[in-house]
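Thread: "does anyone have the structure for this chain?"

Original post by V.I.:
We have the sequence but no experimental structure in hand. Need at least a predicted one for the grant figures.
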Amino acid sequence: MKDALRGTARERIRSLTPAERERAGTAIAARVWSVAEITSARRLLLYAALPSEVPTDKIAEEARRRGIEVIYPRCLVQTQEMALHRVAREADLITGSFGIREPEAASPGAARDEIDVALVPGLAWDRQGGRLGRGAGYYDRLLAHPAWRGFSCGLFFGVQEAATRLPSDPWDAPLDAVVTEREVWRKRRA
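Reply from O.Q.:
Generated one for you, tokens below.
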């Protein structure tokens, strides 16, 4: 079921023209700064976007301008976990696992419990905080780890919202919030 949903999500993303994707990305980069947890963060975990994902370089630039330290993940294929690294500028990222720009192994490390906010990608999201990733579970393992204490916020184009609740496995980590070009959605607290 998840594989079929991933296919549908990819089709929706491909339906965006380059101009629509650029406009949406610019709007999302501005809208993230309306989220109090992000503006008050000292350390921000950010992903280096693939061409189909919400771009993040402008968010990284603005974070640094605001004095927020930017941290990027590096995929450890053998363990299917992420190592976290401090990155001073995006030019320091190299093409790594899965064709994703990531820090070099020698980059200064960071611990999970140091991160205030994680901005995460995905293929789809729902209004229960469900997130459909690419299937390898890297972000789920990070966000479900006992040492994780941060706020998790997905960055999605509006077309990536699922019409119904996404299927969820016990290891799937829900998001606290989602930012699209149209809105900021927040998970209701029980």
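V.I.: this helps a lot. The longest helix spans residues 18-31.
O.Q.: and The chain is about 25% helix and 20% strand.
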